[in-house]
Design goal:
The structure is a single chain. The chain is of the alpha/beta class. The protein has three domains: 192 residues, Alpha-Beta Complex (inorganic pyrophosphatase (n-terminal core)), CATH 3.90.1640.10; 172 residues, Udp-n-acetylmuramoylalanyl-d-glutamate--2,6- Diaminopimelate Ligase, Chain: A, domain 1, CATH 3.40.1390; 123 residues, DHHA2 domain (Diaminopimelate Epimerase, Chain A, domain 1), CATH 3.10.310. Helices cover 37% and strands 22% of the residues. The protein contains 22 helices and 23 strands. It has a six-stranded parallel β-sheet. It has a six-stranded mixed β-sheet with strand order 7-9-10-11-12-8, sandwiched between helices. The protein has a six-stranded mixed β-sheet with strand order 18-19-20-21-23-22. Strand 18 and strand 19 form a beta hairpin. Helix 2 packs parallel to helix 13.
Length: 566
């Protein structure tokens, strides 16, 4: 084992194993088997990939031998979700006083603020706090020198560390006009406004005459400083008349300062034009925006406005969080898009060498054989690792499919030897397995309409909508047009029998990277599809290969809008 491989095993990076674009059985099986071998040798964070849609014959082979197929991916670009870290947000109802403490504890200049449901509201920083507090002369005195605050009895009690003597509707946030009873009773009375008793908050010490005037006016809040006693009769009357009384140990000056910090952060003015990233953003697309930003912490917000994490600016200076193992190819142009940004640490291949130089030594396994699965089987044998019957069957299928049952001119003696070894472990004859694979032809050319619709069909529900989406892989789209009426009849039958709202058939051409959608049912949904119609009930979907990650989100977005309109 090379020093490079030992080093890579100890890193926290995820290792991705992938074959070439437009994958065949040899490429897909090699990826799964190499991932399994390296996993046994200690590489825990490793994933086999399928570039695009899993071909029908490969799907049959994985299902036959009971092994999970590789994960489908259209690219391996590093995205924001790959480098973001969990956020430590401030909840919307947190007071400015507590928010200052959270900023101090985090050692960050700013932190995200979220609503109760996790929606992102903005970034709170020391500068933003200061801007809010020094808002002198604006909005009727809400600044540091004004008498207005927007808070609640409960939040004020927290900030003042006060004892609650009486409290009415304590969690309701509202505007308060704050007055200090520092003058004699008559002067104080003249100083108070004649209206808005429900907004008045009075700061007072042990002055019973002021206590009585607060009760008489039925003011919203009385804050008694210095823990001075309050007559029990006054407390009893206050409770009856819904006058809240808080008792705090702080003096009047401290109370005045702290009251300004009782405002919930959700009522702060957050910076406009805040830079936000999406989890799906590619780093290459947002790098300059982040590096040119003054912020050292950027929020990551999804398409519905929920905070998903944060990204530190210095994360863009770190190496990518992936390493790549290439199987059944080595030329970057044949790889998944984005490979050029990821260090390649290993290659297993039986083609010409056309990859660019690497920055460090890598493991390279290659030979003049007819199948990469031959090389992978030999790697297991050389390492003394046993093969399950299922994995041996997969490797056997890869060899016979790539060498045309060992009849191809590329077939080598090593292919034959490994084929013989794998046959004994798998318990299946190569001829039998090849015959199975050859019977799996074009689904639209060989299968009845019922099998086309039900072969790979998934049912979904979203609110009041129940629907079904099927998918097949097909390189001859003309067959879809020829059989459109027959397929629609079968889909209509399914629609009626299971009382679905609509049924769709996604026909995918992985080579040309396009799909066509045949759909029947809810006319309102069909009219809102964001695709070009090429015939009645038939749409073309350029670049769409995945039912789950590309088509389904579009369908769910439309059903959500339709439900909101009801």
């Amino acid at each position: 084992m090379t020093e490079q491989w030992v080093m890579e095993k100890k890193t926290p990076y995820q290792v991705l194993v992938s074959g070439h674009r437009n994958p065949d059985i040899d490429s897909l099986v090699s990826a799964v088997a190499v991932a399994e071998l390296r996993r046994r040798q200690g590489q825990t964070n490793i994933t086999a990939l399928c570039p695009g849609v899993l071909p029908e014959r490969a799907r049959h082979l994985f299902k036959r031998f009971g092994i999970e197929p590789p994960q489908s991916r259209n690219d391996v670009y590093t995205r924001v979700r790959d480098i973001m870290t969990p956020a430590t947000p401030i909840s919307a109802g947190t007071t400015l006083f507590d928010a200052v403490g959270k900023l101090r504890e985090s050692s960050r200049h700013q932190l995200p603020v979220v609503a109760e449901d996790g929606r992102f509201l903005g970034m709170l920083s020391g500068l933003a706090l200061l801007s809010n507090l020094l808002d002198i002369g604006n909005d009727a005195g809400r600044g540091l020198t004004g008498r207005r605050i927007h808070s609640s009895i409960q939040l004020i009690q927290q900030v003042l560390e006060a004892e609650v003597l009486t409290a009415d509707d304590a969690d309701k946030t509202q505007d308060f006009q704050v007055y200090v009873a520092a003058m004699n009773l008559d002067s104080f009375t003249e100083h108070l406004p004649n209206t808005a008793n429900h907004e008045l908050a009075v700061i007072v010490g042990d002055r019973p005459e002021i206590h009585l005037r607060v009760l008489h006016r039925r003011m919203r809040l009385m804050i008694v400083t210095g823990n001075r006693p309050v007559d029990p009769l006054i407390v009893e009357a206050a409770a009856r008349d819904k006058v809240s009384i808080l008792l705090t140990s702080f003096d009047s000056a401290t109370v005045i300062r702290r009251l300004k910090f009782s405002v919930p952060v959700e009522f702060s003015r957050f910076p406009e034009n805040q830079l936000c990233l999406s989890p799906r953003d590619r780093l290459r697309d947002v790098r300059n925006h982040v590096l040119n930003s003054v912020d050292d912490l950027v929020p990551v917000v999804d398409e519905v406005g929920m905070l998903r994490g944060v990204v530190l600016k210095n994360a863009f200076d770190q190496p990518p969080p992936f390493r790549m193992i290439l199987v059944d190819h080595n030329e970057i142009e044949q790889s998944l898009p984005g490979v050029e940004e990821i260090p390649v640490i290993e290659v297993v291949d039986h083609h010409r060498i056309g990859m660019p130089p690497t920055a460090a030594p890598i493991r390279f396994t290659a030979d003049v054989v007819g199948s990469t699965c031959t090389l992978v089987a030999m790697m297991f044998r050389s390492a003394g690792e046993s093969l399950s019957a299922g994995l041996a069957g997969l490797l056997l299928g890869g060899i016979i499919s790539d060498t045309l049952l060992l009849r191809s001119p590329t077939t080598a003696d090593l292919d034959r030897r490994m084929c013989e070894w794998l046959t004994k472990i798998a318990g299946v004859q190569p001829e039998e397995l090849m015959d199975e694979l050859l019977r799996i032809d074009s689904p639209l050319a060989a299968k009845p309409a019922h099998d086309v619709i039900h072969g790979d069909r998934k049912d979904y529900s979203d609110g009041r909508f129940r629907f079904s989406l099927a998918q097949v892989e097909e390189s001859n789209m003309e067959l879809l047009r020829q059989r459109r009426d027959e397929l629609l009849t079968e889909m209509k039958k399914l629609l009626d029998e299971e009382q679905l709202d609509f049924v769709g058939l996604l026909v995918t051409d992985a080579v040309r990277e396009t799909s066509e959608l045949l759909i029947i049912g809810c006319g309102e949904l069909i009219r809102n599809l964001p695709y070009a119609a090429v015939a009645e009930n038939l749409f073309v979907l350029p670049g769409v290969l995945s039912r789950k990650k590309q088509l389904l989100p579009q369908i769910l977005a439309i059903t959500a809008v339709l439900q909101d309109q009801r």
